[in-house]
Structures are given as structure tokens and as C-alpha cells.
Design a protein that fits this description.
This protein is α/β, with parallel strands linked by helices. Helix content is 32%, strand content 25%.
Length: 326
């Protein structure tokens, strides 16, 4: 079969697979408050941002690629590019360094970001470039900045974006420090999980800006008040992201859970509390709090950032249940 015929077949498959993914996300209701994102996901082709990716295999990872000489494997690659699943895009040894996030979670995060026309947006963690492309399509190239510490990641993201016809600012640098030369920002969205909320983020925002970031297996949504101050609550949604590299790192302490009831050890919300309060509460103290407060859901917790200080809290930023963050 001729190459151009194969290309046409793959392009047709890409169009149908993308339409099916959009229908699946749309059916979840995630775009009810901002239907403009539906058109964005329809327009931006994800497969251009994952020309190859890795799937789990018995001996580690198996590489799938759009330039595989086997037609059936190319079809597998294309179908996988439009599954509602995260895709590993950079693996070094046994370490997952970068991935393309699950599209439905990306759709929820972008909707929660509440972008408005003319907003300037900083993305922490360039990944494949797909999320920056979605933002650039919705806003404009010159309003979007994406930053990553790894030059291999930023270079590939830049190439993927260009292939899709977008040219936002792609910066190689420590995302924990923001991008001061492009500030101030109206929105900051992180696609990797920090160990704390860097003071540079609210400091580089305009008053009223919004910061959305994965944290402690959840998503924190912060509103910026005066420069350097931000506060907000967690969303209900669980979220697991590649850690933010660079900046101040805190290695998590071992979680000694022996002796705690199994209903706590295996409970996803208890594990969230452990991650949120590490180095402030030991597991038994966290368990006592969890039971006393009625096994609180994520949305009862929040974070406050004030200058170089930040703390997590339950129900009330100034209440008795609050913990300093590293």
C-alpha cells in the first residue's frame, strides 16, 4: 500500500478518534460551565504532541511510535494517542521523567482555571506541549508561557507546538521560580506536583489571579490577593502528577502505618491527609484527626501562602487545624 494512502488512513483515524475522545469528555459534563473548551479539544490534534510514547510492558516500557514501519503498530500508536489516559513521553532508565496528562483531567483543570479573553497564562511543566497548545488556541500564542527545567523536554515541546502551528514562549528554567521576565500573570497552571507552593508564583501574579496546581494527590485552587498572598481550597478531584523538579525539595518521610486500622491505611482520602501534613503530623496523629473530623473530604482542606510562609488547613485558615508547609 502506498505511503500517502497510509497517511490518509491514519489522518482519518486521528479525526474519528479525536471526535470520540471529545464526545467522551463532553458526556462527563466537565465543560458545562465553559463550553468553549470543547471546540479547543476538537481543534488541537493530540497525536502531534506524542509522536512516540511508552506503555508498560513485562520488562519495563514498550515504545509506540508514529514512524513504526509496521502499519498495525502505527494504528495502535494513533488509537493510544486518543485514549483518555496519561501517556509516558520521556523515560530514562526506569524513571518516568515526563508524560502527557489524561485529557479529561486536563479538560477539568483548564475549565477550573477560569481563563478570560486577554489573560496571560504561565504553565509550570511543559510536558509534550499539548496543554500549552490548548491554551494558545483558546487565548493567543503571545499570552502563553510554558516553562520546564529539562532542555530536552522544552526542545521537543517547542517542536511539537510548531508542528501544530503554535509558537508560545517556551522557557527552559526552574518552574519553582516562575518566569519573572514574562510576569505579571493572570493565571498559573502547574502540570507537575510541587512539594510546596513556591512564593514566586503568587508574587508574579496580578491581584485577582488564579493558581491551579496538583498537590498531595489533589488539586489546589488559589486566588491571589495582594502581591505574595494567595489562598484557596482543594477541589474534590484526586490527581497524581509527575513531581516538580528543581526548587526546594523535601523528601517525604516514611509513612509508618502499622497499627492503624486497615480502613484508614487503604483509604484514599486518609493517604491524601498524610501527604498534606507530612513532617507536621505523624500517621497516628493524622488518623486521630481524620476520625475526629468525620473523615473529611478534600474540599474541606485548603492552603494559604503569605510571602515566604505557607500553611495547609482544615475548614478555616486561622482555625486550630493548620500545619506549616516546608
Amino acid at each position: 500500500m502506498a505511503t500517502h494512502s497510509l497517511d490518509r488512513e491514519l489522518e482519518a483515524l486521528a479525526a474519528s478518534a479525536r471526535a470520540e475522545l471529545v464526545r467522551e469528555i463532553d458526556a462527563s459534563g466537565v465543560w458545562d460551565t465553559d463550553p468553549g473548551w470543547r471546540e479547543v479539544f476538537e481543534a488541537v490534534p493530540r497525536h502531534l504532541f506524542v509522536p512516540y510514547y511508552y506503555v508498560g510492558a513485562a520488562d519495563g516500557y514498550e515504545r509506540r511510535s508514529g514512524d513504526d514501519p509496521d502499519p498495525w503498530r502505527r494504528e495502535q500508536w494513533m488509537r493510544g494517542a486518543y485514549e483518555d489516559a496519561p501517556l509516558a513521553t520521556l523515560v530514562r532508565g526506569d524513571e518516568l521523567v515526563s508524560s502527557s496528562s489524561q485529557p479529561s483531567l486536563m479538560a477539568q483543570m483548564l475549565t477550573e482555571l477560569e481563563v478570560e479573553e486577554g489573560n496571560t497564562v504561565l504553565e509550570i511543566g511543559a510536558g509534550s506541549g499539548y496543554n500549552a497548545a490548548l491554551l494558545a488556541h483558546r487565548l493567543a500564542d503571545d499570552l502563553v508561557t510554558t516553562v520546564d527545567l529539562d532542555p530536552e523536554i522544552t526542545e521537543s515541546a517547542r517542536q511539537h507546538l510548531a508542528a501544530a502551528g503554535h509558537h508560545p514562549a517556551v522557557v527552559t528554567g526552574d518552574g519553582a521560580r516562575g518566569v519573572p521576565e514574562r510576569a505579571p500573570f493572570d493565571r498559573i497552571i502547574a502540570t507537575c506536583a510541587p512539594t510546596t507552593v513556591p512564593a514566586a508564583w503568587p508574587a508574579q501574579c496580578r491581584p485577582g489571579a488564579r493558581i491551579l496546581a496538583p498537590f498531595a494527590t489533589g488539586l489546589i485552587s488559589l486566588r491571589v490577593g495582594s502581591a505574595g498572598h494567595a489562598e484557596g481550597r482543594f477541589l474534590r478531584t484526586p490527581a497524581y502528577f509527575v513531581p516538580l523538579r528543581g526548587g526546594t525539595r523535601v523528601e517525604p518521610e516514611a509513612l509508618y502505618l502499622d497499627g492503624l486500622p486497615s480502613r484508614a491505611r487503604g483509604h484514599e482520602l486518609f493517604r491524601f491527609l498524610l501527604a498534606l501534613t507530612q513532617r507536621s503530623l505523624d500517621p497516628y496523629e493524622a488518623y486521630v484527626l481524620w476520625e475526629r473530623e468525620g473523615r473529611p473530604a478534600r474540599e474541606r482542606f485548603g492552603i494559604t501562602v503569605s510571602g515566604d510562609r505557607s500553611w495547609a488547613w482544615l475548614d478555616d485558615p486561622e482555625g486550630p487545624n493548620r500545619w506549616p508547609m516546608p
